[in-house]
Amino acid sequence: MSEPLLQVKNLKTYFYLEGKKVAKAVDGVDIHVHPGETVALVGESGSGKSVTSLSILKLINKPGKIEDGRIILNGTDITPLSEKQMAKIRGKEISMVFQEPMTALNPVFTIGNQLKETIRKHTRVSKAEAERKAIELLKLVGFPRAEDTMKEYPHQLSGGMRQRAMIAIAISCDPKLLIADEPTTALDVTIQAQILELLNEMKDKLNMGVLLITHDLGVVAEYADRVMVMYGGQIVEETTVKNLFLHPKHPYTQGLLDSLPSLEKEVDRLGAISGMVPPAYDFPSGCRFSDRCRHVMEKCRTEIPDLKPIQTGHNVRCCLYE
């Protein structure tokens, strides 16, 4: 396989709160994404998925801080880059589709203005050329009347169309990496499928790497190549999608899959994971999942297990496999 497009090594992003509390939202995360590959980052709310994506883009503001780690994009370490240098990379080398397009799009500018601004910021083209490319992009992402849409404001579009506009902006400069953070949140099921299919088409057409952040395992099964399960700011399991669904190893992953309805077997009650994700400033001293795990042992409460391979391409962070 080719060299990874994105390599995140030992990423740690902490938030310094009142009362000297330190929230370890991302704590030692490693990620790699290859060109043309979709890697899903999965976990329930509060597990650190969105903070990981914002850290990769270096969009963490106070009281948050990237404490440690390296972010290597296309062979270049972008960790030490200044905000001015990062502004040239965001949108061109790496783009992001946010989960709520109504807040991500500027309500006082037309869709056309926002598209053309991105194109002209990163490419040396005339206003006329930027206009032509913007119309082409809107047609590409499924706007039947692209010329009219150029003059419309975000509030005039439906949720699905706003998300399509966001995707058009995100791919406008042919980025090598696209981060999609819950791109189908608040959309109905039919529109969700259209948006995900569109992202898949764009990935194949541009040979982009895609980091797909979601809590929906159905989306993972359909669109991802590899999956990383996140809990308590750490990756607890990493493998291929097929392997994850057929042979889940970490008790947290097993709990997530048990909570899904199945057409193959009848059950009176779906499984559930007891308890809640602890706040990032109050994790257990040992394994982050120990307070909720049905297989907990004494050493789980004192030792933090490492993410280790249990077979080729399948890594798990759990004392059961040590």
Which secondary structure elements does this structure contain, and how are they paired or packed?
Blueprint lengths: L5 E11 L5 E12 L4 E5 L6 H8 L7 E10 L2 E2 L5 H7 L4 E4 L3 H4 L6 H12 L4 H14 L5 H4 L9 H12 L6 E5 L7 H18 L2 E6 L2 H7 L2 E6 L2 E7 H6 L4 H8 L49 E4 L2 E3 L6
Parallel strand pairs: 3-8, 3-9, 6-7, 7-8
Antiparallel strand pairs: 1-2, 1-4, 4-5, 9-10, 10-12, 11-12
Do you know the CATH topology of the domain at 6-38 and 47-80 and 225-321? Rossmann fold
Overall 3D shape: globular
Helical amount among residues, as a percent range?
A: 25-40%
How many DSSP-defined strands? 12
Strand content: 15-25%
The CATH class of the domain at 6-38 and 47-80 and 225-321:
Alpha Beta
| Straight-line distance between termini | 29 Å
CATH architecture of the domain at 6-38 and 47-80 and 225-321: 3-Layer(aba) Sandwich
- Sheet with most strands: strand arrangement: 6-7-8-3-9-10-12-11
Number of helices: 11
The SSE string, one letter per element, is EEEHEEHEHHHHHEHEHEEHHEE
- Class inferred from helices and paired strands: alpha/beta
The main β sheet shows up as: 8 strands, mixed
Question: Are there runs of 5+ residues with pLDDT below 50, and where?
Answer: none
CATH superfamily of the domain at 6-38 and 47-80 and 225-321: P-loop containing nucleotide triphosphate hydrolases
Mean pLDDT: 91
